[in-house]
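Protein modeling request. Please complete all fields; requests missing the sequence field cannot be processed.
Requester role: graduate student
Desired output: 3D structure, token encoding
Chains: 1
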Amino acid sequence: MFNGFIFATGIENSYPTIEGGRVRMDEMEKCGHYKYWRTDFDLVEQLGIRALRFGPPLHLSWTGSGKYDWSFADETLRDLKRRNIVAIADLCHFGVPDWIGNFQNPDFPAEFAKYARAFAQRYPWVQVYTPVNEMQICALFSGMYGWWNEQMTSDRGFVTAMKHIVKANILAMRAILEVRPDALFIQSESSEYFHAECPAAIAQSEFRNARRFLSLDLNYGRRVDSEIYEYLMDNGMTREEYHFFLDNNLKHQCIMGNDYYMTNEHHVNADGATRASGEIFGYAVITHQYYNRYRLPVMHTETNLMEGPNGDEAVRWLRKEWANVLRVRNNGVPIVGFTWYSLTDQVDWDVALRENRGTVNPLGLFDLQRKIRPVGEAYRDLIRDWCAVLPTQSICLRVPIALPQEHEEVAAQAAPAPDTDQPSSEATAAPTNTD
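Delivered output (435 residues):
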């Protein structure tokens, strides 16, 4: 059993489309993971990390309705299993395959649930999932800001993307639970706050501060605020669709993941326009707001900062975020993990993947030559110093995560004795790349 606090990192696997769907912004390709994945897994072990946010590229592994190419997933996930690293399976990260189109497609939720079930059946040792990453951000950037995928710029486009994305997440959780009843789900979601710059901006900031909870309200079956309910009804959600979310509550299987970056807080001016404010409240204050709303165990699922000219900017941010995590924990919130995202530097996130510039962003624990950065050394030391201090101190608060090799041991113990009179099944057991 995985004991103690979850220190994690992740492989950046975003893959939205831009330029009307003509360009795929595949971060695994841009960052060299397809070529260096074995080295990347070595680096995870070198840091002392036992949990990795990782997912095969959906646009390459999901080739059609009920059709899959598992070749890359087979190699990588089986290697993580061999290393006994817990994979937090990141199934949909900001994009869909070309054949689905985009998040406006009403077929996406049911089709994605079929994919999730097939994934769980093929990799039964995987227990922890983020079915759809940052649902709120994905819907905003795709349906309202006009940046990714459908590149729509309307409230209706946002609401349509949101209801399809969250429904896909719920149906995927249900499908996975049918295969692995002890599955756990970490909702990696951006934690936001909007500050009014002047009295005339109060109404706009209050609306945005209510809307920031929308994806989690729907996912956890919580009734939305009255103004948000009217907003949903005015922009294409039906009463029947709304009640689907109220009636499909799986929050007892969930850990609420809060992502926090320097850009997560915003100033709002009188006309409703927003701009980044930098850190004002910080992770601890905002996470308490989310915890008070949902009362779920919490994990800090993403943060990073670019290494700047002094070379210590990211290290100082790591220490600040860790201090916030300890403050949240010491205030009585059941926080179970922390993540520096991602393992390596990223590409073009300085423009939110809106343009294919090829600009390397020094955000990782390692650079793209797989050389450790100062923040990687600091994170390695932090894990070493704190891992023995922060098992959650109470067996009641430990997350019941089985290590991959433990799943195989339990399955072997539960299996019936083989019938020695029957021929071996090894010849028919080889995996195929398609289902």
